[in-house]
Amino acid sequence: MNHQTDLRKLTITALFIALGVLLAPFSIPLGVCKAFPVQHMINVLLAVLLGWQFSLAGAFCISSIRIAMGMGTLLAYPGSMIGAVLSGILYQRTGSLWAAVAGEIFGTGILGGLISVPVAAILLDSQVVSLFFFVIAFLPNTILGSALACLILKFLPARDLIQRHISHRI
């Protein structure tokens, strides 16, 4: 990869981060967490368009900024970053949009939900009644966001447009 391609990928990632921050007020409060389907849409879009590294960076930055603005909790990290990585890795290995969606849903909904239990107990001093509380809270959120990303990638020429701009040489 050349420096120009890297810069374009970073710029596209920054635009998605800006979109995530701009839409952060539209999170849904669910107990000690704030559900944000847009995060999962962005995770899948970045995973498919640019790869897991950029999806992870986007998830980390959006989560950090949301927390700093008071629009997210520490659960934003396990609730977004695990799915972002798994989505990108599965897409990279299979080339299937459905694998990317499944990675986001399983990574965030199941793994992120389970990892959020000790995070909530230790860092947020929350007494979670059930081990699967966050799984139940995260799953609809990530399914909705992943479905939105799937619709965008299936019906809009986003993938072709991004790939054309990344590979275009000045």
What is the structure about, briefly put?
With 170 residues, the chain is mainly alpha-helical. It is built from seven helices and two strands; from the N terminus they run αββαααααα. The chain has a two-stranded antiparallel sheet.
Give a description of the structure.
- It is a single chain.
- The protein is globular and about 50 Å long.
- The mean pLDDT is 86.
- Helix content is 75%, strand content 4%.
- The protein contains 7 helices and 2 strands, in the order αββαααααα.
- The chain has a single domain (3-23, 31-167), classed as Arp2/3 complex 21 kDa subunit ARPC3 (Orthogonal Bundle).
- The longest helix has 27 residues, at 97-123.
Give the overall silhouette. Answer: globular
CATH class: Mainly Alpha
What is the beta-strand fraction?
under 5%
Gross CATH architecture: Orthogonal Bundle
Count all strands and give the number: 2
Which regions are unreliable across 5 or more consecutive residues at pLDDT < 50? Answer: none
The span between the termini is 15 Å
- Helix residue percentage: over 70%
Strand order of the largest sheet: 1-2
- Listing every helix as H and every strand as E from the N terminus to the C terminus, the arrangement reads HEEHHHHHH
What assembly state would you assign to the polypeptide chains in this entry? Answer: single chain
Rg to the nearest angstrom? Answer: 16 Å
CATH topology: Arp2/3 complex 21 kDa subunit ARPC3
